[in-house]
Specification:
Number of strands: 0
CATH class of the largest domain: Mainly Alpha
Organism: Prosthecochloris aestuarii
Main location: membrane
Strand content: under 5%
Radius of gyration: 19 Å
Number of helices: 8
Shape: globular
Order of helices and strands: HHHHHHHH
CATH architecture of the largest domain: Up-down Bundle
Distance between the termini: 28 Å
Oligomer: single chain
Protein name: Menaquinol oxidoreductase
Keywords: Cell membrane, Membrane, Transmembrane, Transmembrane helix
Mean pLDDT: 81
Number of domains: 2
Transmembrane segments: 12-32, 52-75, 84-105, 125-143, 164-185, 197-220
Helix content: 55-70%
Length: 233
């Protein structure tokens, strides 16, 4: 199915070129940051959170929103959600990847991220954040790819993928819950010290993430002819 990404009209390749240019600019800016330090971002002792953490928080919610279309498709057997499930799961994959990239950019010494894996610390919320993000990424990548292949062939997804899909549902709740616990565990951030942070994150995630999914579906319909179906509206 990768070959589909190598076919397109002039507008498609212009869009790909624009995205590659944006990636190049981002890598250049990150290289400058690595050379001169995080001070170039305007962050410091008093302002230690900026665009990176803000985008991480938002994208965690976008990643968790895939469960909103997975639930009716798998638990309630609403097959008309088949196409939108594929979009939702791959949206979760891309959002999870961007989450980890923003965290990597926020680190002054990104090579030290390997210490989380080399020296696992179960009593650290950062360790669990790494576990849930990578686990959710893997679950959605396997599930989305398998469901996409089955949808193209017009057959039902294989039975072995359903346990992974069911596991991804509570896992979706965990990625935002762990993030909320991570924020609430910082004494220097008084506005985040609240017991309702996790449910508040989940509520905002399911609202904002689903809205992004609807907008993406609309863009796909107008640009590529991909229609998620009228039944899911």
């Amino acid at each position: 199915m990768i070959e589909k990404a190598l076919k397109g009209n002039r507008s498609y390749w212009a869009w790909i070129a624009f995205l590659i240019a944006c990636i190049g600019l981002g890598l250049n800016a990150w290289a400058y940051q690595l050379e001169h330090g995080l001070g170039v971002t305007g962050m410091g002792r008093d302002i230690s959170w900026g665009l990176y953490i803000a985008q991480f928080t938002f994208l965690v919610g976008v990643a968790a929103s895939a469960v909103m279309v997975v639930l009716p498709y798998y638990l309630h057997n609403r097959k008309e959600f088949g196409k939108i499930v594929i979009v939702g799961e791959f949206l979760a994959v891309s959002a999870a990847v961007m989450c980890m990239l923003f965290i990597l950019a926020d680190l002054g010494k990104p090579q030290r991220v390997l210490n989380v894996l080399r020296y696992p610390t179960p009593n650290s919320m950062v360790f669990w954040d790494v576990v849930v993000l990578n686990g959710y990424l893997l679950l959605n990548l396997i599930g989305g790819w398998t469901v996409l292949g089955a949808e193209r062939k017009g057959i039902a997804p294989p039975k072995w993928v359903k346990p992974l899909i069911y596991l991804s549902i509570p896992w979706a709740f965990s990625i935002h819950t762990v993030t909320a616990f991570l924020y609430a565990g910082m004494p220097g951030r008084h506005l985040w010290l609240t017991a309702v942070l996790a449910p508040r994150f989940l509520a905002s995630a399911f609202a904002a993430g689903t809205a992004i999914l609807i907008l993406i579906s609309f863009i796909l319909k107008t640009t590529s002819g991909f229609d998620a179906g009228t039944e899911v509206r």
